[in-house]
Design goal:
Oligomer: single chain
Largest sheet: 5 strands, mixed
Low-confidence stretches: 50-57
Mean pLDDT: 88
């Protein structure tokens, strides 16, 4: 007799369906069970307000978590950068699979790179983090740009460029990779130019926190998809975000790189940035040390860098925080 299908809760967007489909295949391989996608509409999908106004973090997650807690789905897949930094007491992130490319990318008219954009170019993005860093880059490189807040799925955002309404849009490389549109990118932004959002490019596979034997068995099976290096990196990044007391609507970028000597990973470098959206002020710091061997060690690394950033004035730069 074939085992009952596992139910994977996912948002309905093309990107969410694509990444959930990839996870479903992987889970099916490790469990030997079929996996069916259960489409769930979240508040973040239906609201037309800008993310910074509706609270940023969590708006895409709450409905999926409610379905998990009600037992309507067995596990859910989130873009890790959408997940609130506070751990839910009844749920567990059973796996953080290997991360996709964390960089931001430009899709521009006439195949232009960021540095080739015309004077006064209108660049669309939904993230205050991107606006802050793009405007800071423009200021220091003698460019004139206008950052324009936009929302919508990949089609909508790229559509603004195709229609001529905008000169360029900035998106996450990982999302375009997952929906098979990476060939439309005209420029990959170095993380030295724009630091990504904490957790960008990574997924979180979340399920109930093992109150039954079935839950415990599922947690153990999903754990096979966990990538320890990705998990320690995103834990440090999200710890930095939490310590700065900022949601994903705040202009905070963070990236933990693993520094290897040949095949051996030796150290981890954590970089953080926070700035005003007009790019006039940025606090950007980094720290390098041994790769944390524990979850607590990764948390401590993020907290330490956040403390240094706050000492340099980061707190005063986050007035855009959603209340």
């Amino acid at each position: 007799m074939t085992e009952k299908a596992l139910r994977l809760g996912t948002r309905r967007s093309k990107l969410a369906m694509a990444q959930s489909g990839q996870v479903a295949d992987a889970v099916s391989q490790v469990t030997g069970r079929p996996v069916e996608l259960v489409e769930i509409t979240t508040y973040g999908d239906t609201s037309r307000e800008h993310l910074a106004q509706i609270g940023g973090t969590g708006v895409f997650v709450a409905a999926l978590r409610d379905a998990l807690l009600r037992g309507e789905v067995d596990f859910a897949v989130h873009s890790l950068k959408d997940l609130p930094t506070a751990q839910h007491e009844d749920l567990v992130v059973a796996a953080v699979p290997e991360r996709e490319d964390p960089r931001d990318v430009v899709v521009a008219r006439d195949a232009r790179k960021l540095t080739d954009l015309p004077r006064g170019a209108r660049i669309g993005t939904g993230a205050p983090r991107r606006m802050a860093q793009l405007n800071a880059y423009a200021r220091t490189h003698g460019m004139e740009i206008e950052t324009v807040p936009i929302r919508g799925n990949v089609d909508t955002r790229i559509g603004y460029v195709r229609s001529g309404e905008l000169d360029a849009v900035v998106l996450a490389a990982a999302g375009l990779n997952r929906v098979g549109r990476i060939d439309e990118v005209t420029d990959f932004l170095s993380v030295d130019t724009v630091l990504p959002a904490p957790g960008q490019g990574a997924l979180a596979i979340e399920c109930r926190a093992g109150h039954t034997a079935q839950d415990a068995a599922l947690i153990a099976a999903l754990a096979e998809l966990d990538d320890p290096f990705t998990r320690v990196a995103v834990t440090a990044e999200r710890s930095l975000l939490a310590a700065l007391e900022a949601g994903c609507s705040a202009p905070v970028g963070a990236l933990a790189d693993l520094l290897a000597d040949g095949q051996t990973v030796k150290e981890m470098r954590l970089r953080g940035v926070v700035g005003t959206t007009d790019g006039s002020t940025l606090v950007q710091l980094s720290t390098t040390g041994p790769v944390p061997g524990t979850h607590e060690g990764a948390l401590a690394l993020g907290r330490e860098l956040a403390t240094e950033m706050l000492a340099q004035g980061a707190a005063g730069l986050m007035g855009e925080r959603a209340l």
